[in-house]
Write a structure and sequence with these properties.
Blueprint: H1 2-16, H2 23-29, H3 32-36, E1 48-49, E2 55-59, E3 65-69, E4 74-78, E5 88-89, E6 126-131, E7 134-139, E8 145-147, E9 156-163, E10 169-176, E11 182-187, E12 197-202, E13 212-219, E14 224-226, E15 236-244, E16 250-257, E17 262-269, E18 275-282, H4 289-292, E19 295-298, E20 303-308, E21 315-320, E22 326-328, E23 335-343, E24 348-354, E25 365-371, E26 378-379, E27 386-391, E28 397-404, E29 407-415, E30 421-427, H5 431-435, E31 442-447, E32 454-460, E33 471-476, H6 497-500, E34 505-510, H7 519-523, H8 534-547, E35 551-552, E36 557-562, H9 564-575, E37 580-586, H10 597-604, H11 610-614, E38 627-633, H12 642-653, E39 659-663, H13 674-689
GO biological process, one term: proteolysis
Pfam family, one: DPPIV_N
Domain Peptidase S9 prolyl oligopeptidase catalytic: 497-688
Length: 696
């Protein structure tokens, strides 16, 4: 009878996939970047523009010279001596304040005007300086010095000064010092000495005291402070976007309340000191200041452009600074991804949008422009993919490059006047890549936990995929609420391909709680990071396996991730251990009380309450089912490495079996090192395939 069981076991593993996890599989996996390199051509256009704005030229993949006439809409291959001599390449972008980068790496200017700040007054008659933690005035002609403030002291002192344009008033920011928590790291095996080293870094954690910065108004002629009430800004996480009105009558600034449920644009009256709320956002959950705070002051019309999710979608509003009245600039069941520029002269805004083409993937980046009164929306891009653009110097045309995970780049020339295509430029050729056996990741959509919301992801198969075989399934997870994480653009070597080459099917999913869908979609994460979208992810994987019989869930699903993904992958085998049975967690922020303050308080709020403990992998460690490998670098300066060790301690106390890899000298993301990556691969091969890695 035991022989029968042994034979059945062998047959089961053979059915899962012959020759998986072999030496050859590892060699192919570890060389994905090499065997896919250079096998996709014609992926981009590097233009050289003529000064008259009518033509540009570039070299194509065949090293031919291509001349494009933007006015005539023609594209032709020409001899080098036929190229316009005065054409120049696009200059590198200037370093400016920017908002979040899109997937292609392009950054876009946030364009809040720099405030009037500094020591000298605009009329040159006065200079400010700090002395004994207070603000002083110096007459630049007589050198006479006068103390303006008297309440400054060490640990609660004045700093930055913002002068009114008429030099009659100034705002000085007074900051009360916050906590001084430090994390100590031990380098066990330094290269330059035998004995260990210690180092410390400043590292505030949720609940710690934070610096409190508040504006104070001063009358220069009277040489005294004008009293202002902080009733509308009592507990700032941050203040910013400081700006004096050009007539010097009001000083504007944003107030982000600790806990991030209140965001205001406030105005201080320069004569009375009265503070009023021009914009008051009081949220039931959080205001995503890290990604969706935008202010552009329009001085000539006493207006401001403001970004808000007040109607359930991230949109732009035109604010009357005198009355606080807000009017939609953009609206609809789609989101503004970022502002590129505000054209004050033509009263329009150029921006990136997601979901603006309802028949496409809602995460595709598209470019648009619209009038500030909300009319005249022009969609500058429309191809079914995620887009990056390069504008002609006169901004009358743009070179539009778009792609998908299953579509190599397509490059077009388009007009900005109406968004119409002028001509095709290039279409990438992936024929050589496909000859290797490489397969496009497959986009897949399934309904989420509510039965109505589409959940998007993709499936990656090995290059030697055989549809008649069975393949264990592994999810690569990152559920951080600051973004969405399923790649939308084309890559010949997607990150997941390496693991797939061992004989796995890898999936990547954006569940509820991640960013850039509706506010309701995003709000799932609030005080609930342990959710990680798992109810959506599990339904998605089950739906995919129902359609694709090669996806074998019989031994459970594997899962891995780093940082926030490390937290989620461990959570999977604690809370959903009947579905996820093998996990590798790298540098996880396992307990949100242990991690950096800004990221965790944004989603988990403040003050620190019982929900922090409820979401902690330390608290839930006793629920472990299945196999778990914890990985951490002892010199992780992003996530306190003690976070991983506290999970290990809790597992030991609960008498749970697990594996722990602490890498001497390793930093954040050490599982991406050659050794860490190999150990992760081996763990899945052993525990999902049931074979010894590289044994064949």
């Amino acid at each position: 009878m035991p022989r029968v069981f042994a034979l059945l076991a062998l047959l089961t593993f053979a059915h899962i996939g012959a020759a998986q996890g072999t030496k050859q599989d590892y060699e192919r996996a570890n060389s994905v970047g090499k065997w896919t390199a250079g096998k996709v051509t014609a992926t981009k256009v590097a233009p050289n523009w003529t000064p008259d704005g009518q033509q540009f030229w570039y070299q194509n993949a065949n090293k031919e010279f291509v001349l494009v006439d933007m006015v005539k809409g023609t594209r032709e291959v020409v001899a080098e001596d036929k190229l316009p001599k005065d054409a120049k390449p696009t200059p590198p972008p200037k370093k400016k304040r920017f908002d979040a980068a899109d997937e292609g790496g392009d950054t876009f200017v946030r364009l809040a005007q720099p405030p009037r700040r500094g020591a000298e007054s605009p009329d040159g008659k006065w200079a400010t300086f700090l002395k004994d933690s207070n603000v002083w005035l110096r007459d630049t002609k007589t050198k006479e010095e006068t103390q303006l403030s008297t309440d400054g002291k060490p640990g609660d002192s004045y700093g930055t000064v913002f002068w009114a344009p008429d030099s009659q008033k100034l705002i000085a920011i007074k900051t009360k010092a916050g906590g001084d928590r430090k994390v100590t790291l031990v380098e066990s095996s330094p290269r330059d000495q035998l004995q260990p080293k210690t180092s410390t870094l400043n590292y505030l954690k949720p609940g710690d005291p934070i610096p409190l910065s508040k504006p104070h108004l001063f009358d220069v002629a009277a040489k005294k402070e004008v009293a202002t009430s902080d009733e509308l800004f009592p507990n700032p996480w941050d203040t910013g976007f400081e700006h004096w009105a050009p007539d010097s009558k009001r000083f504007y600034f944003t107030y982000n309340q600790r806990g991030h449920t209140v965001m205001r644009l406030l105005a201080i009256d320069a004569e009375s000191g009265k503070v009023t709320a021009v914009v008051n956002e009081e949220c039931k959950t959080f205001f995503d200041y890290a990604n969706k705070l935008f202010v552009q002051y329009l001085d000539d019309t006493n207006e401001a452009v403001w970004m808000s999710e007040r109607d359930g979608w991230n949109h732009l509003y035109l604010i009357d600074l005198a009355t606080g009245k807000a009017r939609n600039i953009t609206k609809g069941e789609w989101v503004v991804r970022g502002v590129e520029r505000v054209d004050v002269k033509n009263r329009e805004v150029w921006f990136r949008a997601l979901g603006v083409h309802p028949d496409q993937d809602p995460y595709h980046v598209h470019f648009c422009r619209i009038k500030l009164d909300g009319t005249g929306l022009v969609k500058l891009t429309d191809g079914d993919g995620t887009h990056t653009v390069e504008y002609s110097p006169d901004r009358k045309h743009l070179i539009d490059t778009y792609s998908r995970v299953d579509l190599p780049p397509v490059v077009e020339l388009r007009r900005t006047a109406d968004g119409k295509k002028v001509c095709d430029l290039e279409k990438a050729d992936a024929a050589e890549l496909l000859k290797t056996g490489w397969r496009y990741p497959e986009r897949f959509v399934a309904k989420g936990r509510d039965g109505t919301t589409d959940i998007h992801g993709y499936i990656v198969r090995p290059s030697n995929f055989d549809p008649s075989k069975k393949y264990p399934v592994i999810e690569h997870i990152y559920a951080g609420p600051h973004d969405h994480h399923v790649r939308k653009g084309f890559s010949p070597a997607p990150y997941e391909q390496r693991m797939a080459e061992l004989g796995f099917i890898i999936v990547k999913i954006d569940g509820m709680g991640t960013n850039w869908r509706s506010k309701a979609f995003h709000d799932v994460c609030w005080k609930n990071l342990g959710d990680s979208g798992f109810p959506d992810r599990i339904l998605w994987i089950k739906a995919a396996a129902e359609k694709y019989k090669e996806m074998d869930l019989s031994k459970g699903v594997g899962i891995f991730g780093g940082s926030a993904g490390g937290q989620s992958s461990t959570r999977a085998v604690l809370a959903f251990g009947d579905f996820y049975t093998v996990a590798v967690s790298d540098c996880g922020c396992h307990d949100n009380r242990m991690d950096k303050i800004w990221w965790n308080e944004l989603w988990m709020s403040w003050p620190v309450g019982p929900h922090y403990a409820e979401q902690s992998n330390v608290t839930q460690a006793h629920k472990l089912k299945g196999k778990l490998l914890l990985v951490v670098g002892e010199l992780d300066r992003n996530v306190d490495p003690a976070s991983t060790l506290q999970v290990a301690n809790a597992l030991i106390r609960a008498d749970k079996d697990f594996e722990l890899l602490v890498v001497p000298g390793g930093g954040h993301g050490i599982a991406e090192s050659p050794y860490g990556s190999r150990r992760r691969m081996d763990f899945f091969v052993r525990n999902l395939m049931g074979v010894e890695p590289r044994a064949r």
